[in-house]
Amino acid sequence: MTNKWRTPHPATMYLLLTMLIVFVSWICDIYGVSVINPQSGEEVRIQNLLNSEGIRWIIRHVQSNFSSFDPFGMAILALLGLGAAEHSGFINACLRYFTAKQSHKRAIILIIIVLGIGSSMLGEIGYIILIPLAIYLFKAAKLPQQAGVIVAFVSVSCGFGANLFITAIDPMLMRYTQEAATNSNIAQNHIGIFSNYCFSAVSMLIQTAIIYVITYKQLIPKMQQKEAVIDEPYKPLSKKERQALFNSLIIGLIYIIVVVFATFSPWGILRGVMGDLTRSPFIFGSLFLISLWIGLMGVAYGFSTNNYNSDRDVINGLTQPLKILGNFLVICFFAAQLFACIEYSHLDQCLLVTAGNWFGSIKWIHPLPTLIVFILLAAVLNLAVTSGTLKWSILAYFAIPILGKLGVGPEITQASFRIGNNATTIVTPLLPYIPWVLVWLMHFDKKASFDTLIHYTWRYSAAMLVSWIILFVAWYMLNIPFGF
After folding, report:
1. Which one in 163, 260, 358, 468 has a CA-CA gap of 20 to 30 Å to 289?
2. How far apart are CA 464 and CA 206, in angstroms?
3. Collapsed DSSP state (helix, strand, coil) of residue 34
4. Which residues, including other chains, have CB under 8 Å from residue 2's CB and lie 6 or more apart?
């Protein structure tokens, strides 16, 4: 008998999850579910989405929920630059030149992993910009392009907990760690943006190796059985195309020099008002700066090869890749409503406070088992609440005092949280960037859905969680400093 079960379309999945959130908010409101936020001391009550006020809120905010959904605007911004680069022939010329140099498949995989992990220093733009880049590079290396989507996605997610650089989330976590330690009268000698640096840097090396091995040994062979890679020889670049490529790369280099000067020089227009990079135009505008960089090189290549002759050609190039947004727009619409309903209902905050109360209700005796349980708790909660700052803004006020009484420093507790916070991000539909990942999978497989993504990513998640915990236990038992 044929199994007729089908996983729903991603848009349908988000619609069903939204209906579930609405129903749960109604049940919780009936029973008067509420919690006390440990940071502010204020009562947080579940807001009913099925009463008259909730229904009015849903109808009034449908449009604003959609238009303010960050991945939607970020995707359009990224595709503008990529569109000009692809339409003008710049990307194709790069691939042809790159292939002529006999690129190595293993090197391509490693490059995407390192770029993905490193991209977290600029925030979450890696999810948006690196996936198309990985597709192009995997195509050049004659590797399954779907594998490029998975590797880029996994690497970017991993980078927020394992990195050689200070990531965008480090200052935000540090603020809550410091405040929770102050409220609990715990020493703050090792709290700072570098408090987890040593552990994070070594974690990057281990997680890079794990992602690489799983990709090369399991993911690619499995995808090669399903996806036939067309081995089309690239036509060598003509003299005119080589000159155009050289010109566009020179322009790209000049652009990088200007941006670096505007960021790190005494003039520093792209630095923050306090002179740092934490909340600077460079960080917040990094996606625009990268998209503009790619677009400028594409336009320069187009005019150098006479593929572009007027501004109309450039505009046509900018709109070229937006055709892929058909599915993405629909998925984003329903995803945006889901995330907005979760935030309005306060279900996420109530879940975190309830989990924190449970963790605090147990009389812990030994620090190491307590830390391991906290890692697993953070990993489970991450399936429902993917915002690391939101989770830590609540859990820090439970975990730091409890573990502080057992002699565990705040920086160690923060490091344990980051393990659970990052290991399971790739196996939950509640990450806002999942629609972007799914639409690229659907570009190669029209029947792809969230179960397709889980089928490829669960091995990465399990391997990273287990290896991270083993590293953490060894690090803690050897009494190695977690940072500076």
Report:
1. 163
2. 9
3. strand
4. none
Residue 115 in tokens:
């770029």
Q: How far is CA 418 from the centre of its chain?
A: 14
- Tokens 């565990």: give the residue: 408
Pairwise CA distance, residues 273 & 253, whole Å: 27
CB 206 within 8 Å of CB 471: yes
> What would the two tokens of residue 236 be?
């060598």
Cα angle 224-225-228, degrees, rounded to a multiple of 5: 60
Structure tokens at 93: 């010329």
Name the phi and psi angles at 39, rounded to 5.
Answer: -80, -50
- Helix locations, 31-89, DSSP H: 52-67, 70-87
* pLDDT at 3 (0 to 100): 46
Q: DSSP state, 44?
A: E
Taking the C-alpha atoms of residue 54 and residue 22, their distance in angstroms, rounded to an integer, is 9
Amino acid found at 413: T
Residue 99: the pLDDT is 66
Which tens digits make up the pLDDT trace of 412-447? 999 999 999 999 999 999 999 999 999 999 988 888
Rounded to whole angstroms, the Cα distance separating 235 from 89 reads 13
Tokens of 297: 């090189």
Q: How far is it, in rounded angstroms, from Cα 282 to Cα 264?
A: 10
* Contact in structure between 215 and 460 (CB atoms under 8 Å): no
Domain assignments of the chain as residue spans, ordered by start: 34-41+51-477
Cα–Cα distance for residue pair 250/356, rounded to 1 Å: 54
C-alpha 262/C-alpha 108 separation (Å) is: 31
Q: How confident is the model at residue 348 (pLDDT cuts 50, 70, 90)?
A: very high
Mean of pLDDT values over 340-362: 95
